[in-house]
Design a protein that fits this description.
Layout lengths: L8 H7 L7 E7 L10 E6 L8 E5 L32 H21 L1
Antiparallel strand pairs: 1-2, 2-3
Length: 112
């Protein structure tokens, strides 16, 4: 098997104590809800013994790997440019993603 383009993902996340869940995101809740104060995503597991089980996953930072089909509209609340989300898959998105976090940091600093 060719090693071209191979990245040892499992070893990387384990070595760096990064949480990893192989599930599909059903909805994105950056403000939480009445029963969960922290931001979270609702996921549904799609493989093996956990298939079909849904879980709320609170997060501090979230990387949502959308796969090969860029269909942000399929995840409620994850449309680029809303809910402080950023994407770099098109020129417009990349331009927004490069300035958006800086704008957010500036806004946070001025409100504290």
């Amino acid at each position: 098997m060719s090693q071209r383009g191979y990245f040892p993902f499992r070893a990387f996340v384990q070595k760096n104590d990064i949480g990893y869940k192989k599930a599909q995101v059903i909805s994105f809740h950056p403000e939480g809800d009445p029963s969960e104060a922290k931001p979270y995503v609702l996921v549904e597991y799609v493989f093996a013994e956990r298939k079909g089980i849904r879980e709320k996953l609170p997060f501090d930072f979230l990387i949502n790997e959308t796969g090969l089909k860029l269909a942000f509209y399929m995840t409620e609340g994850l449309i680029t440019g809303t809910n402080i989300t950023f994407s770099a898959c098109t020129y417009y998105h990349a331009s927004h993603a490069s300035t958006g976090p800086h704008d957010l940091i500036r806004e946070i600093k001025t409100t504290n």
